[in-house]
Design a protein that fits this description.
By secondary structure, this protein is mainly β. The protein contains no helices and twelve strands. Among the domains are: 90 residues, Immunoglobulins (Immunoglobulin-like, Sandwich); 31 residues, no CATH class. The strands form four sheets. Strands 3-10-9-5-7 form a five-stranded mixed β-sheet, with no helix packed on it. A three-stranded antiparallel β-sheet has the order 4-8-6, with no helix packed on it. Strands 1-2 form a two-stranded antiparallel sheet. The protein starts with 26 loop residues before the first strand and ends in a 9-residue tail after the last strand.
Amino acid sequence: MEFKSIFSSTENDAIELPLTFKPRYAGRYPCHILLKSKYDIRLFKIECVVNTDTFEAELEFVTPAYHAVIQDIPITNLSQQDWKLKADLKGNCFYGPPVMYIVPGETTMYPLMFQSTAECVTMGQLTLQNEADGTDHIFFLKGIATKPLALDHINLDCQVSSDIPIVSGEMTLKVEPGDTAAYTLNISPWKRGKFN
């Protein structure tokens, strides 16, 4: 390529060089521009950074208290360089690794976990910041912990007895899990007075 200046040569003279750059994916693109003439050779190193729009999504977790639920979030690296993603996780009861690495052309899962020790509704946000190209993947989080499940079913056999002859009642009483039941005690004295 040869350039001829039609202007007089001074220190502030410049020639505009129109370039067209059409990347297919987000990422960093190191480039070299070589300009040659019979009087001079110049090599310019430039780097083009292409950012996509910030990716945003909403995730809702519903699980009983004390039980964990894990959502694997796929992140695909379509660039030509390794990615390092730093996780900024806000909100109670949400857990995940602080850093993840993705090699070019691969998809890696980010394991996001929600676990609460009580019934609750909590909000949070996960931001995966890509150090290689400056993009952010933002996930708005909602965690709902419902009533905890029974840890076990226990049958209790209890005897109802009395050494007072005027007291009587049913021989059995059934109480469902998480419920209460009333036991009817019948007292039929045959005379008045104090009974021990």
